[in-house]
Amino acid sequence: MLQRYVNFGLQKLLRYQHGDGGWHWWENDQSDPYITAYVVYGLARARDAGYPLAAGPLPRGVSYLRGYLQQGDYATRTYLLSALATANVWPDKSLQEAIGQSQEAYAHRKDLDIFSKASLALALYKLSKQSPKDALALTTQAASLANDLEANAQVSGTASHWTANAIGDGDWLDSDVEVTSQVLQALLAIKPNSEQIVPAVRWLMAARQGKAWYSSKDTASAVLALTTYLERSKELAPDETVVVKIGDRTLKTITLGKAQLFSDPQQITIAAADLQPGANTVRLEKTGTGSIYWSAHLSYVLPEGTPPLASGIKVMRSYRVAAENPVTANTQPSGAIIEVTTKIIAEQNYRYLMLEEPIPAGCETITGDAMDDNDYRRQFYEFNHRDVWDDRIVYYFDDLLKGEHSYTYYLRTEAPGDFRIRPNTAYLVYFPEVRGEGKFARLTVVEELPATTGP
Asked: Mind spelling out the 3-state secondary structure of 53-79?
C-alpha cells in the first residue's frame, strides 16, 4: 500500500515539474523556490529510501535552486541550502559554491529566524559529510547553531517548542509545528544528547489534532522529525497499561504493546451531558514501561442562525432569481437559473487560501462557456485553480490581496425538494484558524410554480 502511494505521488510530481525545473502548486503556474526546495527535499528522501524513480527529476530541480540561490535573502538561502545538501547532487564546482553560500549565511546568522537557523545548521552538518576538507569548520558552525537553538527553546512544564515569526500574512513557514520539527531534526543530527529533544517530542505529540496536525504540511514535517527520533529511541517496545479517568470515574483502560504500535490513536468521547458544571479533571494513570502521548479537544455544533464567523476573512453570499413576488423568491421551479455572487474581504495579504462554495443538493453548476468565458475569469483572476465537484466548487489561491474580491457563478435548479445550503467558507490552507464563513440559506425547488391569478 505504501509503495503504491509513493509511486503515485512521484508520478504526479514528475508531471507537475515546470520547464525551468521548478515546481509550484499546479502544472502551469510560476515556479516557486520554497516549494521547489520542499519537493527536492522530498524526492531526495524518497530516493534514499529506495525509490529510484525519485532520482530522475532531481538534477533539474537542483539546477533551478542553484540558479535562485544567489537571488534570495539569507533566510531563503538557508532553506534552499538544506534541500540541496539533502539532494547531494553537485555538478561541476557547485558543492564549493554552496559551501560559500553557507558561509555568507552563517556570517549573518544573528539576522536569521529560528527556522532558518535550524535549516542552516542542517545544511552545514550535511555539507560537512560531503566535503571532508571543510568538515571541521562546518561541524563547528553547525554545533554553534545547535547550541543557540537549544538555548532559545520555549519551555512549558515538561514540553518545549520553538515559535515561528508571527509575520501575520499566513506564510506557510509561519507555524510552530513546522519550526519545532525543523529544530528537532537539527538537534537529533547535530546534538543527539540534547536535553530539549524529549520535551520537543512531547510538545509535538500534544499539538496533534486527532490523528494528524493542523495541516498536511505540518503533519509531514512532524512525522519526519518524530520518525527520526523513533529510530534512535527505545519507544518501539511499549508494555504499559493506562487508566483514563474524569474526576473519580474511569472512562477506559487501555493496554499498549507492540501490537498497538501502529494502530490508530485511542479515542475516548465524553458527551456534554456527562460533564459536571465547572472544572472537570482528566487524569491518566500509567503502569509498565513506555511513553504515552495524549491530547484533549472540544468540539461542538452551532445552531442555524449563528452569526457568520469572520476571523481575518469575511465571506458574504447573495442569490438573484427571477421572481414576480420577492417574498416567495426562495421557491423556484426546476430549470430556473440562479445567479450566485460571493464577496470576500481579506484583512491583509494572504498566501495559499481555499474558498469552498457548497452546491445545493437540488442544483447543478452551469459549466463550460457560461463559467469560463465572458467576464468570468477577468473578474476573478486571482484564483490559480478551480475544481467543480457534485456538491461544491473549490477555488485555490496562491495569493489573495488585502481588500474586497467578488465573483459570480450560476446554478440551475434540477430536483424538487426543500434544501438547506451550507455556509460558504474561505480559509488559509496551512492556518485554517484564519477563516471566514457565510450564512446558511434555504431553497425550495418545485416541478413548476403555481399559476398566478389576477385580482
From this structure: HHHCCHHHHHHHHHHHHCCCCHHHHHH
Per the structure block, which three cell numbers stand in for 57?
A: 527529476
Domain at 2-232, CATH class:
mainly alpha
Domain locations in the chain?
2-232, 239-289, 310-446
The CATH number corresponding to 310-446 among 2.102.10.10, 2.60.40.1180, 1.10.3810.10, 2.60.40.690 equals 2.60.40.690
Distance CA 336, CA 403 (A): 33
pTM for this entry: 0.69
Report residue 229 as a C-alpha cell: 527520533
Pairwise CA distance, residues 41 & 26, whole Å: 18
Under a CB-based contact definition with an 8 Å cutoff, are residues 62 and 87 in contact? yes
Query: Do the domains 310-446 and 2-232 match in fold?
Result: no
Query: Could you give the residue ranges of the DSSP H alpha helices within 156-215?
Result: 176-190, 197-206
Q: What is the mean pLDDT of each run of 10 residues along the chain (455 residues)?
A: 86 93 90 94 93 91 91 89 95 90 95 94 96 95 97 88 65 80 97 95 86 87 93 82 90 88 82 84 89 74 76 92 77 90 91 90 73 42 80 88 89 90 88 86 81 52
Grid cell, residue 142, equals 553547525
Burial of 279 (0-12, 13-18, 19+ CB in 10 A): exposed
